Amino acid sequence: MELLNLIFKLGVFFSIYGFLWFFIDLGLTFLAGGRKRTTVEIYLLKGIKYAFLVNVTFLFSVDLNKHHINFYNLMPSALILITYFIGMLQQKTRQQVFMGQFAKSQSAVGINIKSEIFLITLCSFLFFGLLWYPQFAENAVALWFQKSILDIESTVIIGFIFKIIGFFFLLGMIFKMLNAVNYLISGKPLFDIKSRFSRTNEEKNDKHFDDFEELT
Fold first, then answer.
1. Most CB atoms closer than 10 Å: which of 25, 33, 86, 123?
2. Is residue 101 part of a domain?
3. Is 184 inside any structural domain?
4. Within 13 A of 215's CA, how many CA atoms are on the CB side?
5. Are 203 and 196 spatial neighbours (Cβ–Cβ below 8 Å)?
6. What is the extent of the structural domain holding 112?
7. How many structural domains comprise the chain?
8. Residue 182 falls within a domain, yes or no?
9. End-to-end alpha carbon distance in the chain
10. Average pLDDT estimate for 82-88
11. Residue 193 near residue 30, CB atoms below 8 Å
């Protein structure tokens, strides 16, 4: 029950953090005069976004554990955070494939899988690094994010909306955990959720082969 409560709370925190970052990103776009960002700029900003999300999640986890900082208390939060990052990567990959069907270009969404995995790996090390040096987590930017998230969560209407998002985040995490357990037991996921669009394309790809396609 405590794990479900933790997943729900972190789901609310993640959604509010994304809401705040949307306006930060919008402000940076206006300051740049609407100029298209380079790949380096995109991943630099994404790295900063992920790093502070890790930082803020660490602070929330410490508060939820009554400031008892140890590996076992914070491990559930770390696993939920990593699962969240992986889920975003999967969603972006699906968007890239979807847009590629129309734009005929893998750059339609601009996702670099290796760079995304590299960022997730760095963020994982950052979280565990804060376990050894928790004093670095209490910086001005992270504390501002934490206070802003708590203020938004405490509002009546907006806070309620984000709690609904947190509930759906909880459901999504439960499905992912059930899928993982069933995959370990039977070798296949319990819920195989694919869009009709994806199934149609898979069926078309199965029926068409290139002359030089190697079958293994």
1. 123
2. yes
3. yes
4. 5
5. no
6. 2-207
7. 1
8. yes
9. 46
10. 84
11. no
Give the amino acid at 99: M
pLDDT, position 93:
75
Closest by CA position to 178, among listed 159, 192, 197, 191: 191
71-103 helix and 196-207 helix, angle to the nearest 10 degrees: 60
90, pLDDT greater than 70: yes
DSSP-assigned letter for residue 195 = -
What number is the average pLDDT over the span 174-195? 62
Please name the amino acid found at residue 71.
Answer: F
For residue 18, the tally of other CB atoms under 10 A from its CB is: 14
> Residue written as tokens 């939920």?
80
Q: Give the orientation angle of helix 39-64 with respect to helix 113-132, to 10 degrees.
A: 30
- The pTM for the full model equals 0.76
Alpha helices in the chain (DSSP H): 2-31, 39-64, 71-103, 113-132, 140-154, 157-186, 196-207
Nearest in space to 51 (alpha carbons), one of 149, 130, 132, 153: 130
Determine the 3-state secondary structure of 138 from DSSP: coil
State the residue for tokens 């509002």: 155
